[in-house]
């Protein structure tokens, strides 16, 4: 009997250890597994060069970077899989080997001449329109943020690049509420109810190119060296935060907020900002910037629509007045 019990203990012990390890390394955004506790299981989360940060426009150092090159961003993937992993909506794309999107130039050229290859993209959002983005602009938040994760091509896979200096880069794009969005997000949001719970995945039957999910204007951006914003919080990650937001509708953003993880709504899945410490925040020097980051980052689409027409009419009134004057002048023979 004792031998049978010992045998049973030998079999069960590894299972229990494995289960406890998984529980210990789980993470979330509130309570016992929230960001303030991440460093208890992931030491790097207490590092000095962590992300996200507050992008203080006054202290940003202007620098003229090489032009960023986006390769294969127009190519439609062979497969487009969306997964609710309990922390975010994770999107994996499959391509032919020579068609995988990649980026080179800009701040990335200082890390490697080979460029960085696309790995995945995912999202962070808040429970209302005043919170959601991870990086802040002058302490103001956007309602959501897209992260396009890239791997340094000097490394054969994501795992090997993860622990290396400059092995990973993240392109960040903010979202703003508007009355319409791109076709990509219209189709994307319609699939979200199919992954309403943790562990669910869905494939997009007619995949759309990666370029349809990012901003159109890609010359204006900020860059700094930071970390992953989720455990294991690996550092020496090159961040590029683009200044032109992506349009998304209130209805589409609401579809993200309805997702659940462990029977709770998956919302406010953003890490609080971290100290900049001794790092330098750079702003790419653009000769004629067309977007002003000093403006309010989020808007109420209904109010904006209501304000636009009167402003438009007001702008036209001087023109109508001038036309009337000209007509009167002609008829009077001047």
From TrEMBL:
It is an enzyme of class 4 (lyase). Residues 25-285 form the Alpha-carbonic anhydrase domain. Pfam families: Carb_anhydrase. Keywords: Glycoprotein, Metal-binding, Signal, Zinc. It comes from the Eukaryota. PANTHER family: CARBONIC ANHYDRASE (PTHR18952), CARBONIC ANHYDRASE 7 (PTHR18952:SF124). GO terms for cellular component: cytoplasm. Its EC number is 4.2.1.1. Belongs to the alpha-carbonic anhydrase family. Residues 1-24 form the signal peptide. GO terms for molecular function: carbonate dehydratase activity; zinc ion binding. This is carbonic anhydrase. It comes from Drosophila kikkawai (Fruit fly). Gene3D superfamilies: Alpha carbonic anhydrase.
